[in-house]
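STRUCTURE:
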């Protein structure tokens, strides 16, 4: 069964297919998605997060909103690594967030 990290990684790979500067996934779940060391600008970030939201909904039947005031105001960004984003999506799904 496909997990949240698998879906995130697949979406990053799809992003990398068309991006000039690619997200390095060599560090597995500790690979940086956003922040220091990431090639994503704000447009790329929003685009990738929307793609991940849609893929999580389609493949895992989890409806979530990733980029909102709650996520952006956290002390430690849930968007930093594949692992932190997967954990954040897991928390949102447990809360039944939309």
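SEQUENCE:
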């Amino acid at each position: 069964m496909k997990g949240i990290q698998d879906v995130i990684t697949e979406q990053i790979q799809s992003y990398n297919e068309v991006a000039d500067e690619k997200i390095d996934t060599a560090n597995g779940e500790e690979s940086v998605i956003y922040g220091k060391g990431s090639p994503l600008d704000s447009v790329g970030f929003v685009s990738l997060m929307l793609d991940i939201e849609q893929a999580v909904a389609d493949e895992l039947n989890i409806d979530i909103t990733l980029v909102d005031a709650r996520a952006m105001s956290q002390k430690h960004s849930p968007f930093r690594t594949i692992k932190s984003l997967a954990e954040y999506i897991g928390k949102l799904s447990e809360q039944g967030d939309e």
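REMARK: The chain has one domain: 4-18+25-95.
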